Amino acid sequence: MRLAVIPARGGSKRIPRKNIKHFAGKPMIAWSIEAALQSGCFDRVLVSTDDKEIADIAQFFGAEVPFVRPPELSDDQTGTTPVMAHAILWQGENGVPAVDVCCIYATAPFIQSQDIQSGLAQLHSSGADYAFSVTSYAFPIQRAIRITSEQRVEMFQPDHFHTRSQDLEEAWHDAGQFYWGKAAAWLAQTPVFSKYSCPVYLPRHRVQDIDTPEDWIRAEWMFRAWKAQS
């Protein structure tokens, strides 16, 4: 059994109703549901939510919402792993136990079905517990600066002031789209950002974190430009 779980609680604060706010013509969560279904990787695509409106929209676009996420897993302090463990346990108690489970974020409009497929292949070929999407930083993180309380500037790593950018090690970050994992690893709450994981590389132009209204505007610009070239 291969299971997709899309966590989508109703209490987004910085962008109210973010999971179902329309992005490029459809509710945000629809992009994730459609990519999951189109990938052909899953026996079930579930949405884990505490919100009836989100549940109704998720079902309209083809996902299943067979349970209501409990309140203790629906506040803004709850991490992704306990939500995934809850869904995996539910599946085991109500059907065929899951073996491979993919967490897909509800706010990932750039997600592509072929990347989900690549993630599954990476999970199996690598022997890792997890395989998740990553992308590279556009600027060397070793040359990052901070703004002090006195409104002055200082480097995080001053020893790299004279180091050429091309001589610095490339750095990567979580692309915030999907996280394939073995069910046992999710249930054991094995750390995702660790030696137990392998990367699935994505180009920077298909990655945008959406946490603020400014992020949302930038993401729509990027999305339109990307689709114009597709």
UniProtKB/TrEMBL annotation:
Parts of the chain that traverse the membrane: none
Under Gene Ontology molecular function, one entry of this record is:
N-acylneuraminate cytidylyltransferase activity
Q: What domain of life does the UniProt record list for this protein's source?
A: Bacteria
Q: What is this protein called?
A: Pseudaminic acid cytidylyltransferase
Q: Keywords on this record?
A: Nucleotidyltransferase, Transferase
Q: Which gene encodes it?
A: pseF
- Keyword Transferase part of the UniProt annotation: yes
At the top of the EC hierarchy, this enzyme's class is: transferase
Which is a Pfam family this sequence falls into? CTP_transf_3
Q: What is its EC number?
A: 2.7.7.81
